[in-house]
Amino acid sequence: MSKQPVNRALFDDVMVPNYNPQQMVPVRGRGSRVWDQEDNEYIDFAGGIAVNALGHVHPELVATLKEQADKLWHLSNTFTNEPALRLANLLKETTFADKIFFCNSGAEANEAAFKLARKYAYDNFGPEKHEIIAFYQGFHGRTLFTVSVGGQAKYREGFEPAPGGITHVPFNDLEALKAAISDKTCAVVMEPIQGEGGVIPADPEFAKGVRELCDQHNALLVFDEIQTGVGRTGHLYAYMGLGVTPDILTSAKALGGGFPIGAMLTTDRVAPSFGFGTHGSTYGGNPLACAVAEKAVELINTPEVLGQVAGKRAVFVEELDKINAKHSIFTEVRGDGLLIGAELTEQWHGQGAKFLAAAREEGLMILVAGPNVLRMAPSLIIPDEDIRDGMALLDKAVEKVINSQAN
């Protein structure tokens, strides 16, 4: 077998072209800093898309992974294991949930949630109660079911026919939901903050109204907390800050601190509909993932970590405001905690990728949320110095994009 250089060019040769990664190839990280193959250094405001909540190579996560790696990797669901039981118990003790289902990703957690919602309605009310209501601009994953519940048609195009029984209404529009919901509705699905849809927070009164409508129509409220969960907003889960408790909650991303894991949390009332044999996952709840996730939750769910999120957000917003005062590039900075979206002015709509590439050239890793919003979801423990250094790089990147357009 011929040995090709392992670089960005190899990606185009061997990988399915559904991604278009940046030209540099990261090879190591520590904290909120990353280095590429040429040993160029980057400040990481992307956080693996809200995954690396404790930064890169956190020593306690590494130690936990190594310890478990010497014990047990995989069993299958014919058996349970100690890390899975400990993690499930920890999530039960720290959230509204009574019962937990483990899987490998956010999409799988949402797939399980939507199936459970329909099964619960089927068991308790009959087959006619199967309709799911979700929101435009929502994002819930890339399986055919989750991409259909997601409210962005571009992700469904070319994959039709999509699963039926799904309705979409505008986010933060309670009257639209009132008009759509009925006794046939089995669940309303929402993100506390729409992440991929542009970092748009749910209005607290809207969220409370959704809960009330679900109660009136015997529908379950499903919170997709894949991106907002595990400390991102300064609460262990965002529902705690909204004061609205769902019936089902999905978690992934930061749950494993970078190790793939997903979870669906629910109540004793709903859980029995997933009886023996109704759903499963070969790798879900595997000992490696659950051991790391237990340590990640323990480290994040502390006053020291959660209590500093608001302060770090304030530094981000202060620095973004300085950039905006200089360049008049943003119409709004929004989100909550360390899920931050800066919407570009209309002049720059559709050009978010230019700023992402320019930032990378300056040594900064950021994200977009659609073509109009720059998104940041860094480590929850990113040092303030790294925030300010990264923002100085973003300032340079913005200036370069503006100057290149002028020329």
TrEMBL record:
In-chain residues carrying the UniProt-annotated modification N6-(pyridoxal phosphate)lysine? K253
> Which UniProt keyword terms apply here?
Amino-acid biosynthesis, Aminotransferase, Arginine biosynthesis, Cytoplasm, Pyridoxal phosphate, Transferase
UniProt cross-references to Pfam families, sorted A to Z: Aminotran_3
What domain of life? Bacteria
Q: Name one GO cellular component term.
A: cytoplasm
Any one GO BP annotation for this protein: L-arginine biosynthetic process
Q: In which pathway does it act?
A: Amino-acid biosynthesis; L-arginine biosynthesis; N(2)-acetyl-L-ornithine from L-glutamate: step 4/4
Subcellular location as annotated = Cytoplasm
Catalytic reaction annotation: N(2)-acetyl-L-ornithine + 2-oxoglutarate = N-acetyl-L-glutamate 5-semialdehyde + L-glutamate
Q: What molecular function terms (GO) are annotated for this protein?
A: identical protein binding; N2-acetyl-L-ornithine:2-oxoglutarate 5-aminotransferase activity; pyridoxal phosphate binding
List the cofactors: pyridoxal 5'-phosphate
Q: Which PROSITE patterns match?
A: AA_TRANSFER_CLASS_3
- Where do the annotations place N(2)-acetyl-L-ornithine binding? R142, S281
For this protein, the record's PANTHER family field holds:
AMINOTRANSFERASE CLASS III, SUCCINYLORNITHINE TRANSAMINASE
| Miscellaneous section | May also have succinyldiaminopimelate aminotransferase activity, thus carrying out the corresponding step in lysine biosynthesis.
Per its UniProt record, what HAMAP family does this chain match? Answer: ArgD_aminotrans_3
What's the family?
A: Belongs to the class-III pyridoxal-phosphate-dependent aminotransferase family. ArgD subfamily.
Matching entries from NCBIfam families are given as:
arg_catab_astC, argD, PRK01278.1, PRK05093.1, PRK12381.1
Q: How does it assemble?
A: Homodimer.
Q: What is this protein called?
A: Acetylornithine aminotransferase
